[in-house]
Every structure is written in structure tokens, then in C-alpha cells.
Amino acid sequence: MPPDPVTMHGVPMKVTTARRTTTPAHELTTFQTPSGKLFVVYHMGVPAMDADAWRLTVGGLVDEPLALTLKQLRDLPRVDVRAFHECAGNPLKPALPVRRIGNVVWSGVRLGHVLGMAGVRSEAKYVWARGADSGIYARTGTHCDSYLKDLPLEKALRDEVLLATELNGEPLDEEHGAPVRLVVPGYYGTNSVKWLAAIELEQTRAAGFYTTRLYNDRTVEQGIERVRPVWAVAPHSVIVSPAPGQVLALKSQRIWGWAWGANEIRGVEISADHGTSWGAATVERREDYCWQRFEYGWMPPAAGRHELACRATDVAGVTQPARGARNETFHVKVRVEGS
Ligand SMILES: Nc1nc2c(c(=O)[nH]1)N[C@H]1C(S)=C(S)[C@@H](COP(=O)(O)O)O[C@H]1N2
Ligand SMILES: [Mo]
């Protein structure tokens, strides 16, 4: 038997405070976001990982528990997955849009490959993933002995879900989860557990702070409270150009940006009149789990201040709401000069 994963969390913390960085949409000018421009989020700090001592334990409802070294993991078949990466935002204010987004290439081993080696028992329904970080979630003062998340086994077995060791072709750096992190394309970033230490196969959802108190969207439908785990990413879009406050000439302008979601985006619309009318942008097809570029030709009706908005609709027909959600419609204010 591998060691009980809980006892592995003797990993000392190198940094003991949270960090959250955001790159504004108008700086996301390239299809692949350079690692230095990719947002960073951690809730408790950065653990002092020792790559030589690192083991990934795989336990719970499996035929053969594993404890893989980094070398053993690296010797398994390696794949690349290109995907958008989006933070769900402040888990205490789930309706607040933060628009932490990027589009990167992850490389590593399919989680499904390792689960196949361990042999998942038929009773298993969820995969629990634990990071080696521990400490205090400062916003509530809650102490946690690990960052524990879960996802449905069905999603965990999909080809895009990786035990990643590289970001944009370089070894992961410590802030992005070195030596190994989970990556769950199509799901919010919170599920992509960094500094991965243990995988457990279970029948139920995990009873941790980050899976019960935080990261569950609560809505009331016909008087009944519904709780939805913050898993699949809702359709979302941002305008990259023009930038906020940009001064434009009174002539035809190209508006462009990115749209993404768990499902492919089938359309993006632009409004320059506070949502009274919308025009269809052209949208590129999706590759892997990447964001999709959209473009729209806009003729400013007059000089003066204007507000541009964009909203995406996915192939299931779901559209970004006007307000009150983390994926609410994005707006940018510009000024048009000329006669
Ligand atoms: N172990 C661990 N994994 C974590 C977190 C964390 O605090 N601890 N934060 C999550 C959140 S909320 C996000 S949005 C992503 C951010 O990944 P990045 O910093 O590599 O962009 O990591 C996720 N994985
Ligand atoms: Mo996040």
C-alpha cells in the first residue's frame, strides 16, 4: 500500500500567502498566451516541492494502488493538449466577473492512462485530486491541510485530462504547479490541481472546503435550491481590440477578441448600442480546447463616446447573460474622433 495521502502533507510551505494576478483582455493579443502573461492563482501559498522525493499516489477504489516517481511518470506516453485556461473568480463572490483567461499548451501524461494502470473499480464515480499545499484560506480564515478537488470519473477518463509537467513547451514553474499538476480542459481552473500529490477514486464527492463550502454555484429554481459544482466553463468572450479608452477614427473599425467555453462557440455578437441591437461577428472554428478568435467590422455612427459589448453562444445554444454572472457580457468604452 502506498502511504496514506493525508500523511504526505508534511510538505513545508515556501510561500504562505495567496496570490492572484490578472492580465487584462487587451493584452491577450496572441493565440497562445506566453507563460509570463498567464494569470497566476493560489489560495494558501506555494509548497516547497522536492522533485526527487515527489510521489504521485493513486489509491481508493483501485485494484492496484500506485506511488509513481517523476521518472516513472515521464516514461509514460506524453501528449500535448492546447486549451483555454480560465479562473472561476472569487469563490465567495461567484457572480463577479474577473476574466482571468489564457490559452496555452500543456504536455504530460493522460490521467486516464495512469488510472488504467491502477485499475478503477466499478463502484468508483469521482476522482479526488490533492495538492501538497496547506495553510489558511485568508478570506475566511479557514485552515486546510491540502487543496482537495474532485471531478466526475467520466470527465477524468477523457483524453484531454492530463497530469501535466510542461506549460508552453517548458517545464512547469513552481507557481504554476511544478513538478506535476492536473489539467482539466473545459473545466474552470480551480479544478486543475497544482503541486499534485495524490489521486483517490471514490464513490462520492470530496468533503473538503474547496469542494463543499467554496466552488458550488447556488441558484433557486422554482423555490428549490440547486447546487452546481463549478466544473464546466460557461460560454464567455472578451474584446481584445479596441482597448479600453482607445481613441478611434470615424471610419470602419475592426473589433476582435476571443470566445471560449466547455462547448465550442458557434456565434459571437457585438452591440454598440447598450444591447438594443446585435450584429454577428465571424468566429473561427475551435481547435482542441482552444479559445476561438472572432472579428467584426464596425462603422462608428458618430464621433463621441461609445461602448462596445460582445456575447458568445455555444453549440448547445447557451448565451452569456447580460449581467449577474461570472461570464456576464463584456464591455469596452472607446472614444471616436473625427467629423
Ligand atoms: N494545489 C492548488 N491548486 C490550485 C490552486 C491552489 O490554490 N492550490 N488554485 C486553483 C485555481 S482557483 C486556479 S484558477 C488555477 C490557476 O492556475 P495557474 O496559476 O497555473 O494559472 O489553479 C488551481 N489549482
Ligand atoms: Mo481560480
Describe the structure.
By secondary structure, this protein is mostly beta strands. It folds into two domains: 13-229, Oxidoreductase, molybdopterin-binding domain (Sulfite Oxidase, Chain A, domain 2, Alpha-Beta Complex), CATH 3.90.420; 236-337, Immunoglobulin-like, CATH 2.60.40. The protein is 5% helix and 40% strand. A five-stranded mixed beta sheet has the order 6-5-16-9-12. The N and C termini lie far apart (77 Å). The model is unreliable at 1-8 (pLDDT under 50). The chain binds the ligand Nc1nc2c(c(=O)[nH]1)N[C@H]1C(S)=C(S)[C@@H](COP(=O)(O)O)O[C@H]1N2 and molybdenum atom. Residues 41, 87-88, 189-190 line the site of molybdenum atom.
What's the N-to-C terminus distance? Answer: 77 Å
CATH architectural category of the largest domain: Alpha-Beta Complex
What is the N-to-C order of secondary-structure elements (H for helix, E for strand)? EEEEEEHEEHEEEEHEEEEEEEEEEEEEEE
How much β-strand is present in the residues?
35-45%
Provide the CATH topology of the largest domain: Sulfite Oxidase, Chain A, domain 2
Largest sheet: 5 strands, mixed
Helicity level: under 10%
The total strand number stands at 27
Overall morphology: elongated
Give the structural class: mainly beta
Low-confidence stretches: 1-8
